[in-house]
């Protein structure tokens, strides 16, 4: 069962709410077992963490990445960090890095 702390005079006594660190508007979860009631802050699920628009972008990027893997468009596997660094350095040969102007 969940409960949202709506007002300072909610079912949860102010002293208990303050000591537990619960804030107004926070969603709490009540668990009952063997006559014991436990009150916990409800943790956001992955779906609650993002807006629907953000979730759509993330899902599209994940789908694109998975399609790249299916099509074989992936980097080679490296057994050591040194192999990875050598590959990166080999890919940048002949392309000198341009310094970005510092903004002040």
Give average pLDDT, whole number: 78
CA-CA gap between termini: 53 Å
> Strand sequence of the main sheet, in spatial order?
1-2-3
Radius of gyration, in angstroms, nearest whole number: 26 Å
Q: Count the helices. How many?
A: 4
Into which percent range does the helicity of residues fall? 25-40%
Content-based structural category: alpha+beta
Total number of β-strand segments? 3
| Biggest sheet overview | 3 strands, antiparallel
Q: Which stretches of 5+ consecutive residues score pLDDT under 50?
A: none
Strand content range: 15-25%
Q: How many structural domains in the coordinates?
A: 2
* Topology pattern, helix = H, strand = E: EHEEHHH
Shape: elongated
Protein model, in words:
The chain is α+β, with helices and mostly antiparallel strands. It has four helices and three strands; from the N terminus they run βαββααα. The protein has helices spanning about 15-20, 45-50, 50-70, 80-90, and strands spanning about 1-5, 25-35, 35-40. It has a three-stranded antiparallel beta sheet with strand order 1-2-3, with no helix packed on it. A hairpin with a 2-residue loop joins β2 (about 25-35) and β3 (about 35-40). The radius of gyration is 26 Å and the shape is elongated. The model has no long low-confidence stretch (mean pLDDT about 80).
């Amino acid at each position: 069962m969940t409960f949202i702390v709506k007002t300072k005079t909610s079912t949860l006594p102010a002293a208990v709410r303050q000591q537990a660190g619960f804030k107004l508007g926070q969603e709490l979860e009540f668990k009952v077992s063997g006559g014991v009631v436990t009150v916990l802050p409800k943790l956001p699920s992955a779906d609650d963490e993002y807006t629907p628009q953000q979730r759509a972008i993330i899902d599209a990027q994940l789908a694109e990445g998975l399609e790249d893997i299916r099509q074989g468009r992936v980097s080679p596997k490296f057994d050591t960090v040194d192999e990875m660094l050598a590959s990166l350095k080999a890919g940048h040969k002949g392309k000198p890095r341009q310094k970005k102007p510092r903004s002040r």
